[in-house]
Design goal:
The protein has 71 residues and is mostly helical. The protein has one domain. Helices cover 65% and strands 0% of the residues.
Length: 71
């Protein structure tokens, strides 16, 4: 998550929120985190959940997996 925060700030800071959210989720690929991501995407598609900003996504990740620390 630290790398994602840094990359977002440096490289795609001006991009649309949906682009930033999609970029972060594209790196969630293994184990429990991947199952969590698949569930999140399913809820987003069904409009059972809304994530408007990458900050909201990081909060959801933090709530599920613990503190995210930026370096």
């Amino acid at each position: 998550m630290n790398a994602a925060c840094l990359y977002l700030k440096m490289k795609i800071n001006g991009e649309a929120a949906t682009t930033q959210i999609a970029w972060v989720l594209s790196y969630v690929q293994e184990g429990v985190a991947e199952a969590w991501k698949d569930n999140l995407l399913d809820k987003l598609v069904k409009r059972e959940l809304e994530v408007k900003t990458v900050e909201e996504l990081f909060k959801k990740i933090q709530d599920e997996f613990g503190e995210i620390t930026e370096k």
